[in-house]
Amino acid sequence: MAAHAGETARETGDFLCTKCHEKTHVTKGHKIPKCHNCGNDTFDERVHEPGNRSS
Ligand SMILES: [Zn+2]
Questions:
Q1: How far apart are CA 55 and CA 17, in angstroms?
Q2: How far is ligand 1, taken at its centre, from the CA of residue 44, in Å?
């Protein structure tokens, strides 16, 4: 599931840049920043919260 810079993270987790695959950690309720490495604003969402399996 894709996420974009400026959106509020629904869950605490890691967001993987779709361009350079740099990982950005975002806490629940915080806005997702642009990739600090390449400035891309589209991410693949990787949530590692226990008990949150959305397959
Ligand atoms: Zn990037």
A1: 21
A2: 11
